Amino acid sequence: MKILIINGPNLNLLGKREPEIYGQETLTDLESWLAATSEASSHDIEWFQSNHEGKIIDRIHEAMENADGIIINPGAFTHYSYAIRDAIASVNIPTVEVHLSDIENREAFRKVSVIKDVCIDQIKGLGKIGYLEGLKTLINQE
Ligand code: DQA
Questions:
Q1: CATH superfamily to which 2-139 belongs
Q2: Which residue has its alpha carbon closest to ligand 1 atom 2?
Q3: pLDDT tens by residue, 70-106
Q4: pLDDT tens readout for residues 19-30
Q5: Is residue 80 among the annotated active site residues?
Q6: Nearest residue CA, atom 9 of ligand 1?
Q7: 99 is catalytic
Q8: Taking the CA atoms of the chain, what radius of gyration do you get in angstroms?
């Protein structure tokens, strides 16, 4: 399968950004870690990060041509970007929403995901393992 992993705003700062919440590892560390798993070895995985809503939407549209599944951590866009939600709904590619932290058990505004309903699953609070679980979900879906 060809899988696109999208990370949204501020996730380029992983490792430096609030490490007590998001951990010590960088986004590159996460990429290397996932690539070394047996699940990833038989699939073609591409990572994309942007701090810009429109760039994320453009990348989701491009995925129509070449992705079988999307894993997305939309960062704070999770909580209010109807545009990213509509983009996911438009391309009709199975998509899993992933969060490093447990958004249910933080500030009230983080409990709301406007993305969740257009995704096949939402995984939260597992740190980097969430990306692996997202990959497994995409691999195992009908
Ligand atoms: C996050 C949770 C969001 O609320 C936050 O804005 C992020 C990261 C997570 O991975 O836990 O940027 O998506």
A1: Dehydroquinase, class II (3.40.50.9100)
A2: 75
A3: 999 999 999 999 999 999 999 999 999 999 999 999 9
A4: 999 999 999 999
A5: no
A6: 99
A7: yes
A8: 14
